[in-house]
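Re: that chain you flagged

S.,

Sorry for the slow reply, it's been a week of failed gels. I finally had a moment to sit down with the sequence you sent. For the record, here it is as I used it:
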Amino acid sequence: MEAIIGRYRVQVLESGINLRHVSGIAFDLNVDETVGLMDVLNAYRQTFQSLQNQQSSLSDSDTDETS
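Prediction finished late last night. Pasting the C-alpha cells below so you have them in one place:
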C-alpha cells in the first residue's frame, strides 16, 4: 500500500514501512520500529491535534485580515 502524506511518500511493506521525502531522504523502518513510532504518535495525538487546530485558527485569522 502507498500513500502520500504532505511531502512524504509512505509505502507499507511486509517488513515495515518506508518513508521517502521529495528530496530523496528515506527512512526504512522495520516492524518493531514502525510499532514504536505508532506508539509515540498515539501518545502525543491529542497534542498534535491541538497544534493543528491552533495553526488552522491562525491561518483562518490571517485570511480574514487580508480580505
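What I noticed first: The chain is about 50% helix and 30% strand.

Talk soon,
D.
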